[in-house]
Amino acid sequence: MQSAVAGRPAWVKYAVVGGVIVVAGIVGVVWNSISVQATPTSSTTTENQTTTTPTPADIATSYPPQYAEFYTSMFANMDATVDPCEDFYQYACGGWLDANDLTDTDSYIDTSFSIVNKNNDKIIHDIMATKPDVIDPFYQACVAEPAVNGEAVADVTTQLRHIATLDSVDALLAYAGALAVTTTTKSFLDIDVGVDPKNATVNMLYLLQGGLTLSSAEYYANAAKYFGPLNEYIANLSAALDHHPFQTRNHGSDMIAQTIFDFEAQIANVSLPRAQLRDPWATYHKFDLQDVHPFVATYVQGMNPLWGTNQTVPVLVPSPQFLEGLAKLVANTDLAVLKTYVSFHLVHTRSPVLGDTFRVLTHNFRSATEGLPAVESRQVYCTNLVKSYLGEYLGQLYLDKAFQPSVKAQAKALIQQIEDAMTDLIHQVDWLDAPTRRVALDKVAKIANFVGGPDSFEPLPFPLNATNFYQNVQTLDSLANNATLNKLGNQVDHTKWTMFAFTANAYNDATANKMVFPAAFLQKPVYGASEFPAVANYARIGVVMGHELTHGFDDRGRNFDPSGQLAHWWTADVKDKFESNTQCLVDQYSTFPVESLDKKTVLGYVNGRMTLGENIADNGGLKLAYMAYQKAKQADPTI
């Protein structure tokens, strides 16, 4: 479960990635167009052909003046001193790389997402300045929160004292489950409600790997780097709580930190690597609640006592090995250690609402372990909370202010062209047999496209308090968590959006066979109906559309049929050919080094198996956009 809007299972939703990496492909598509249309100024003759290369001046005079800004920026991003046959990435992106550096306020920068996000910040700032109903009371209460929120700290202190009184592992597990609902505290494992992949019309309970403070299980193997920040964080939290202990024994913060780190390291050891969780068949293990380990049932029943009388609650366990290993770990761990662990996770989870003092401490810890930028101002933090908690309301205001119906129609028309290109490609691929090709074509024909934002949303059933931030968070968390739990066993609403209209991203939901493109991504520099030449829109938003469509046929998405069901619709021979053909991408990307910022140290290499879905989608998206552009150009040579 999540603090605001419950998330979908990670392995059925895919988001676009890229930024600068995609620029290389974009330049290739655009350059292919302009090198044909522009006035030639130089040529190189080979035995069979003559190649002409236009200059920026040629390009500028070959297109209407409204495109001048686009071409100026594109050429500025390039490094024309580099031979594209030697290093196409540097040729396409070198100018941008030289001109841009990370600042203390950036966690990343690129040529698309970060620019759109900055544009969105301005739009949202203007919306917030109008003090809209529902949103403004929440925002004002958040901004006015004191450095230490006495009411929130008192509640957490009471909960810590209750944990200290618990005298059995079962009692602790049940209370930890209750805390997952009342405080969004995630300890031991992660729990969500999502679609049953083999029956995409019904929701079920997901029991997922979790229970870790550090963002990756691999980090626990490097205690020299990560224990120090955790130790400092716990000491600072303890001091901010007026030295309230995280456990009943009178140990210092260093001993507490060691206890937590060691226990979580053992959880990490029984966790499956993320790459092994990509296969939806290997991770489909459906049980009734009564059939999972008793410790899990105790935890889950703490979340909802009614489940204790309904043992037929269906649950999906992607990693039974994790639950089995976790059960053994809990059984062999001293109760005092488990209480220390749950107590810390409670404080860690609630720290952002305990006051700015705690929020900054948590940010500093995450900065030390994850490389976050400088801590954001209270105003920015509160605006981000508005996005999280009241995103549907803010999204509707965003649509009213920044999204034109004509853009929606134009985007859907372009999506159709990308889908037509996929249809053509499926007909052309020679390693598909007739049965597999038939279903693949049906899947493309039946895909649903959501553009802009939802048409409506449910109003809040209660007013928000303009002075009590903590109360607002408690109320909204309860509303979101209950909404998530109430989905269990009910019909899936495939019309629901899991991204807000102001989100600069897109996704493919395999269990619904749908693609979603929020309004925020349909603006410059990703899309410009009148500001960009047609080729640029194919090369920018067209690549994104192709990326999302390709996800429906990548190493995970291909396992879902036209109705969103997990099904074996690829024949064995075609499946083998797919795996053989995609192995080259695994091998290729696994050679890409991850370097330090100064490029003097190789930190590791890309895990080509784990990134395979995105790599397939990036390459496929570029191919589909190029095919769609070439087909459109045949119909209209002037574009």
From TrEMBL:
Keyword Protease in record: yes
InterPro entries with a match to the protein in the record: MetalloPept_cat_dom_sf, Peptidase_M13, Peptidase_M13_C, Peptidase_M13_dom_2, Peptidase_M13_N
Record's GO cellular component terms: plasma membrane
Transmembrane segments: 12-34
Keywords: Hydrolase, Membrane, Metal-binding, Metalloprotease, Protease, Transmembrane, Transmembrane helix, Zinc
Cofactor(s) annotated in UniProt: Zn(2+)
Organism per entry: Aphanomyces astaci
Family membership noted in the UniProt record: Belongs to the peptidase M13 family.
SUPFAM superfamilies: Metalloproteases ('zincins'), catalytic domain
GO BP: protein processing
Superkingdom of source: Eukaryota
Pfam families: Peptidase_M13 (PF01431), Peptidase_M13_N (PF05649)
GO terms of molecular function: metal ion binding; metalloendopeptidase activity
All copies of domain Peptidase M13 N-terminal, residue ranges: 84-454
Species lineage: Eukaryota, Sar, Stramenopiles, Oomycota, Saprolegniomycetes
Residues of the Peptidase M13 C-terminal domain: 505-635
The keyword Repressor is assigned to this record: no
Protein's UniProt name: Peptidase M13 N-terminal domain-containing protein
